[in-house]
Amino acid sequence: MRSQLIHDIKTYSASDEEACFISPMIELMETKEDAFYRTCFTPGHITGSGLLVNPDTNSILLNHHKTLDRWLCFGGHADGDEDIRRVAFRETCEESGYSENQIEFYTQEIFDLDIHTIPENKKRNEPEHNHLDIAFLFRLKETTPTEFFVSHESNALKWCSINEAVDLTNNDLHMLRMIDKLKTLKK
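Predicted structure:
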């Protein structure tokens, strides 16, 4: 799995903004056996995330993350699982409350790469570190259900238009880049 992911990242058509993330991700996977574990803090660890859209790709489900206190896409730790697609899918299902039968990959291709800093968490005894994140685009298979389950990791979930998502994510560069890519898909 790791060698396939390295290949996928090397052959990914990164935007200019993402290009600087490729080398650190590959180096981490090639040099750190524990790169997929949340206890790898120097410089950080591989995570998987998912942007979830409705079938028409005109609404995004955002997650108001409890710990980070921001509107984000879904995602989380690999916990040793090197199949980052499976990680991103699992995290999107768990955090959105939708079942595996309700969500599908828009494409199996990587949707975005990002490295972002996670602040120190004294409660968990975690130093400041990086999440080297690999994101995928997911969509609901059927019309957007109006009710959903809010997990213990979230304060709230919200279906919103693309423009509203831009406003809610408060200039988070990773989210804005993914939203811009989503706009491009719609053309």
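Summary: The beta strands are 44-53, 59-65, 70-72, 74-77, 103-105, 112-118, 129-140, 154-161.
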